[in-house]
Amino acid sequence: xxxxxxxxxxxxVDNPDDAALALVDLTAPGCGPAVVxxxxxxxxxxxxLIALVSPDPRGFAAVDTLRPTDILTHQGLPxxxxxxxxxxxxxxxxxxxxxxxxxxxxxxxxxTADYAESSDVEALLHGVTRRLAEQxxxxxxxxxxxxxxxxEGVIVAASDDPGLKDLRIDLARYxxxxxxxxxxxxxxxxEAATHPLLGDLERRAVAARGIHAIAALPLPIRGxxxxxxxxxxxxxxxxxxxxxxxxLTTVAHATAVALRxxxxxxxxxxxxxxxxxKAASFKPYQLFFAHVSEGVAILDDKAGVLSLNPSGAQxxxxxxxxxxxKHLNQITQPLDxxxxxxxxxxxxxGEARSGVxxxxxxxxxxxxxLSMSAAPLRDEDAATILSFRDVTDARKLEDxxxxxxxxxERLIDSSVDAIIAxxxxxxxxxxxxxxxxxCGYSAAEAQEKLTVLQLYxxxxxxxxxxxxxxxxxxxxxxxxxxxxxxxHRSGERVPVNxxxxxxxxxGRESFSVGIFTDLRDRVQLERKLSDVETRLEESEKSAxxxxxAGTAAHELNQPLTSVMGxxxxxxxxxxxxxxxxxxxDIIYREAERMAEIVRKIGKITRYETKSYVGAQQILDLDxxxxxxx
Length: 629
Known about the structure:
It holds the Pfam family HisKA. It comes from Corallococcus praedator. The protein is an alpha+beta fold. The chain is built from 21 helices and 21 strands.
């Protein structure tokens, strides 16, 4: 299968959701549930099926309900499979292209109808961006109109925020928009995070948001680019195809026609004048915030700065008079403008937000972390009050502490010894990987369900705590190395060496911690050494017995030989009817018996005993010499 797919120019994938074609083997036993699961998956309706069936009527009847694009039998494998896969892939691509074209055409017709019928321009523009984002499965679609200045733009609609409108932006931070304005042609950046059109700051911002591709399409009105349709792809969407760019160009032209007579352009041109008028009526607030140590900015309903107090001006390296009338993004240059705009937008909707960290870059090149709070101002001349303070050093310290904590946790988890900590009620608060391996519980189980009492044999935990508090075994609050046992989840007793201590806070006991070294391997080794020593002792004893037996046999052989010789001489001189013949014969036979015993003693090579009288053991000559026979 893999080879045929490779020859057909296709790639085999593991996840059905990533597939376009599916080869279903209906000859495999019990394949029914797997086929049902495939067809009912999210991608099931979009799959092009090829069925592998047995070459008989029953096999072909099995595919009636599936209605595959093509059918294949084992007789056609493997020569026919490559050709059929190629044809199926071509048909699938044609079907997908037709479906996409029909979808694009349907959306374009809907948008054209909306342009002709809708009288609510703001709702119309938001609907356009929203439907484009849904159709193309992109992170955000935005309509940006050009302001009076060359470096000023206004966001009039965004797909992800129906309330976002008339938001001024600094085009210096959007090189893709400036390029569209300069050339009058679409700009597509497929690898946005590394695209040369973006500067270092913009690349970092794009990478931080997970944006893969950016497309900017011009909105030409009376031969001049007066706006830009800006789209950003993130998540699963990685690029924009040529067909999609053509479709978006058509949508942009249709939108430009709809905006030709709208009032949006006029409101953009007069926005700066309105901000200046509001700033003139805002003087009473300036004196009130002049001596506040935190930065304070008063914003209008378009996030334009009406007032900036001295602390804020010093913090942002921007004179207060220069900040007035500018958009908040221009004077803060946030690394993630989405976070800042969400904070301001929430305040404009009447929701107070506090403690939101925003990373900004000042004109002097300083990178600061500001903790910002925003609240609505119920005043006819202003919409939002924004306060902020510099927490750069505090966040660095928090990061260092967090890194230190992570390092210590990794260090504890990497220890082969078990490290267990518990509070004064016996609840486990630390259970490292070594403890998991030693006791058979996971850290989550130990912390949720166990107490220290369950890790020791009955009564041992209380005795250990008493020893820690005693000054005799290492000093108060410390326990020197002792031998102890833990109870494994299976009930096995695990021998350990342990040390322990009590951690004090302000002179009071806070929690206890123990370090345990698993001795099971050591105990097993000690047992093996003991067995070896025992066998060595037996071997030495056997060697002594063998040496003694050899000596005894050698020393007894000579007198026995003499006894047997003289007994045999006496038997020859006597007749059987003589009185002395029978005693001499008994002497001879018993001497022979003793000689046999001596021969056995001389053949002893190991130490074997048998019971004799009561609990007494004597040497078993037969077993001690049996291996020689």
